[in-house]
Design a protein that fits this description.
The protein has two domains: about 140 residues, HAD superfamily/HAD-like (Rossmann fold, 3-Layer(aba) Sandwich); about 45 residues, 434 Repressor (Amino-terminal Domain) (Orthogonal Bundle), CATH 1.10.260. The chain contains eight helices and six strands. It is α/β, with parallel strands linked by helices. The termini are close together. The protein is about 40% helix and about 10% strand. A six-stranded parallel beta sheet has the order 3-2-1-4-5-6, with helices on both faces.
Length: about 190
């Protein structure tokens, strides 16, 4: 994959997935079948702000314990060495993304402006964050790839018109996936020499 722009999801893609979403839903009082951010977005302002602060605290606590996904640091370092554009588009907070990237040892590979959290752009599956990064980089969607571990990542990539790469053992979304690899080691091995 020879792309000029690489946009990565964070949790479950570059870091070992650690969010226990059913437990987070229970802690926040979000119905088990609801998307957390969408549910919170529909609440009255005072309740939304209180629960968003609680969610922020949960995510900041988890960021202190984050571990790199297999091959993630090596992949990011190699892409950085090749001088491609690197970005993060996450449904986490910007501060959580920064702390997580620092903890896995690759924060220095990213321009802080290219790390977008849920308050920097509408959350995935909206493609706005991808468009924002590509416009900033002056990179065409056809020269970029959205890399993630969930359908929201793939849907955002498709909606933005860029390539999609699923990093997950199985592929439950083949219609949304251009490249499928089980982990970042495998993605690194697919980079052209």
């Amino acid at each position: 994959m020879q792309m000029q722009g690489w946009i990565f999801d964070l949790d479950g893609t570059l870091t070992v997935a650690q969010h226990d979403f059913p437990a987070i839903r229970r802690e926040l009082g979000v119905p088990l079948d609801e998307d957390i951010l969408e549910y919170l977005g529909r609440l009255p302002i005072a309740e939304r702000e209180r629960l968003n602060r609680q969610l922020d605290d949960i995510e900041l606590r988890l960021a202190r314990e984050v571990e790199p996904a297999p091959g993630a640091a090596e992949l990011i370092r190699e892409l950085h060495r090749r001088n491609v554009r690197l970005g993060i588009l996450t449904r986490n907070l910007h501060s959580v993304a920064m702390a997580s990237l620092e903890r896995i040892g690759v924060l220095d590979c990213f321009d802080p402006q290219a790390i977008l959290g849920r308050n920097d752009a509408p959350p995935k599956p909206a493609p706005d964050g991808i468009h924002q990064l590509l416009n900033e980089w002056k990179v065409a969607p056809s020269e970029a790839v959205m890399v993630g571990d969930f359908r929201f990542d793939l849907e955002a990539g498709r909606a933005a018109g860029c390539h999609t790469c699923l990093v997950l053992e199985d592929n439950p979304w083949p219609a949304l996936t251009d490249v499928h690899v089980p982990d970042c080691h495998a993605l690194l091995a697919r980079l052209p020499g």
